[in-house]
Design a protein that fits this description.
With about 230 residues, the chain is an alpha/beta fold. It has helices at about 1-10, 45-55, 60-70, 80-85, 95-110, 130-140, 155-170, 175-200, 210-225; strands at about 30-40, 60, 120-125, 145-150, 205. The protein has a 5-stranded parallel sheet, sandwiched between helices. It is globular and about 45 Å long. Bound molecules: cytidine-5'-monophosphate (C5P) and magnesium ion (MG). Cytidine-5'-monophosphate (C5P) binds near residues 84, 127 and 182. Magnesium ion binds next to helix 2. Monomer.
């Protein structure tokens, strides 16, 4: 299925094949990329929004990009994405990486230099990489990451937050059956990514159990170090 997918992506009108470029596509001198990980409901999106306000990051949520592609009329990936998301599985990396690359391109074309103190594009890539293949491919083809922000709290808290969000989110996967599957995927597939980056000293773990402001205060301490 994956080689097929690659061909499809190359042909899709909104997912054009990239022109040949030196790898990785975005040099480290041009962009700062922070990956944001943590279990479902750990508070990644909430914390990213606060960081955007403070540092002018462009916030790219892999899940949001996938849902937008899923809902785009005539997307040939809509059904595939829907099935993977409902089952709490990781969408084949070619789709997600291409969506991220396109989104980074769009940001850099539209707002280079604007509000970025050091002149580099600043990206928070939220909910990515969720699987080792995504991590390796993104770093090889697209850009090297500077930091992995890792939000942790217990499963009870995450479940509570997700069920609360599910009342209004309209998301197909904020229900108890999907949530259980997402927790399994997180442990089995995403935790190895964290362990991999830990070996390189790139992970900053932040306890996301306390109130939002308190978590934010702890987060800016580590983000400041990366940006200076
Ligand atoms: O991050 P978020 O909770 O919005 O992700 C929702 C779903 O999107 C995940 O459970 C997974 O099915 C899919 N996803 C993915 N690969 C990513 C991020 C999200 O397959 N890197
Ligand atoms: Mg999110």
């Amino acid at each position: 299925m994956v080689p097929n997918l690659l061909e499809k992506i190359a042909d899709a009108p909104r997912l054009p094949s990239s022109p040949k470029h030196e790898k990785p596509k975005f040099a480290k001198e041009k962009v700062t990329v922070i990956f944001v990980l943590g279990g479902p409901g750990a508070g990644k999106g909430t914390q990213c929004s606060l960081l955007v306000g403070k540092y002018n990051f462009s916030h790219l949520s892999a899940g949001d990009l996938l849902r937008a592609e899923q809902d785009r009329p005539n997307s040939q990936f809509g059904d595939l994405i829907r099935t993977y998301i409902r089952e709490g599985n990781i969408v084949p990396m070619e789709v997600t990486i291409k969506l991220l690359e396109n989104a980074m391109d769009a940001v850099l074309v539209s707002k280079t230099g604007e509000g970025w103190g050091d002149g580099r594009g600043r990206f928070l890539i939220d909910g990515f990489p969720r699987k080792m293949d995504q991590a390796l491919k993104f770093e090889e083809d697209v850009c090297t990451s500077s930091l992995v922000l890792f939000f942790t709290t217990n499963e009870e808290t995450m479940l509570e937050r997700l069920l609360e969000r599910g009342k209004t989110s309209g998301r197909d996967d904020d229900n108890i059956e999907s949530i259980k599957k997402r927790f399994v995927t997180y442990k089995e597939t995403t935790m190895p990514v964290i362990e991999y980056y830990e070996k390189f000293g790139k992970v900053a773990e932040v306890d996301s159990s306390p109130a939002v402001d308190e978590v934010h205060a702890a987060t800016i301490v580590v983000v400041d170090k990366v940006l200076t």
